[in-house]
Structure formats: structure tokens, C-alpha cells
Amino acid sequence: MKCGFCLHTWFSMQECTPLVSHVPRGVRGVQLTGVFRDNGLDESIDLEAAPLLGSSSSHKGVLENLEVNVIGMTCVACSGSVEKALLKVDGVFRASVALLQNKAEVTYDPSRVKEEDIKEAIEDIGFEAEIIPKVSTQSKDQGTMTGQFRIGGMTCAACVNSVEGILRNLPGVTRAVVALATSLGEVEYDSNQINKTEIITAIEDAGFEAKLNLEKKERYFYTFLLLLYLHLLRNRTAFSLL
């Protein structure tokens, strides 16, 4: 703690009356310990270990993360309602809802709440929810890859849901998230069962345009190859004119 506000906060949470109303800048923890000892308090109290405002230290075990597809959100008020509903669930410690991606990310204590309870909390306020399967490390080692695709022709949330449904039904696809605002789709898939060309074909068969969205380093690589080809072609042409 480095200011009077921190000290006041700690005493408030301990339901004590603060003995120090102001701590000068630069005062260290050892000096504060001396203040407690002089006033008959337990000097072994670790101020840095005091719980922070807005957090909970009552959970036991390891927290887990969960991603849920939320269908039916149309505005910021919708995403706010979903977030509030999730935070009211006992055992949920953090919830973040992305409207454009139709996705909620939840951090929870599995010993206090189940994945189905989180899903039902969303459905109880009028939205559809689908838990995104977790991809194990073992699956990734065996060939799970992530591809990003640029999808054309989407005009509304129904288009997004249609493309996501098509992608998730493909063999080997473990996760698919499509964003209308950026016209991008991110797909996790098992390269032993399906490849990027087959994913693009599936999107095009549904009436949309699709192409692989190359990463920056890949674009640089292909640009370099193109420039190299043009350079060699120019040299060959100049040599033939001699």
C-alpha cells in the first residue's frame, strides 16, 4: 500500500476504525507495522494480502474459463443484460460479452457452478446459448489448427448464424466464430479430417463468398515471391534482347 486510501480501505474491510488518516508518500510497510505495534494491534497482519474491492477470495481450487455462443443479441443493452445475468450466478467470478462476435467469456469455479448452469442463466433471460467445446492440448498436438477466413455476402445476424452453423457441422471442426462487422470467421479444426480448401468450399456452397485471410507475415512472404518472380522475368527479358 502506498497511500492513505489503501490504508483506509483495508481498515474498512476489517471493520476497524483507522488509526492513521493519512500516510505520507514514501512510507514503507515496515513503518506501518510499527504503527500497528504501538497501538496494540497484531503486527503480523499482511496488508498486501488484504482482499481487494470488487474481488472475492472465498473460492477454493482452480478457476476455469468457458466460452459460450449467445444468439439473439441485437444491441449493447442485450449484451449488458447477458453480462449481468452471468455475474449473478454463484460461482462466476468474471463475465465478458462480445456483441459483434455473439460470444460470452466466463471465468468460474467448477466446484460451485456447472457449465449447464451458466448456459441456463443466459437462456432464462430470453437468449439462446451454446457452449463452445474446449480443445484439449492433446488434440492440438495431434493436428488441431486455426484458420481465419474472409467471408463476403453476410448482411445480418441471421447470415452469421447460418455460416457458423454450417462450419460447426463440418467433420473435424471444433470451434467456429463469425463476426459480421469485420466479415471474418475463425475456425479451429483437425487437419487430419478437413483442410482449409474444404472449409472455403462449404461456405461457398451456402451462397457466400470465402477466401483465406492470410496473416501479415504470410502476405509479406507471398509479396516477396511475386517481386522475386517479376525481377527474374525482367532480367530474362532484358537478356533476350541482347
Give me a quick take on this structure.
This is HMA domain-containing protein. The protein is an alpha+beta fold.
What percent of residues adopt helix (DSSP H or I)? 25-40%
Strand content: 15-25%
The whole-angstrom Rg is: 28 Å
Q: Categorize the overall geometry.
A: elongated
Strand arrangement, major sheet: 2-3-1-4
Report the average pLDDT across residues: 75
Unreliable runs, pLDDT <50, ≥5 residues?
4-36, 41-57, 137-141
For the record, give the distance between the C-alpha atoms at the N and C termini, rounded to a whole number.
79 Å
Q: What can be said about the biggest beta sheet? A: 4 strands, antiparallel
Question: What is the secondary structure topology, with strand pairs?
Answer:
Blueprint: H1 4-13, H2 29-38, E1 64-71, H3 76-87, E2 92-98, E3 103-108, H4 115-123, E4 128-131, H5 137-141, E5 144-152, H6 157-168, E6 173-179, E7 184-190, H7 196-205, E8 209-212, H8 216-240
Antiparallel strand pairs: 1-3, 1-4, 2-3, 5-7, 5-8, 6-7
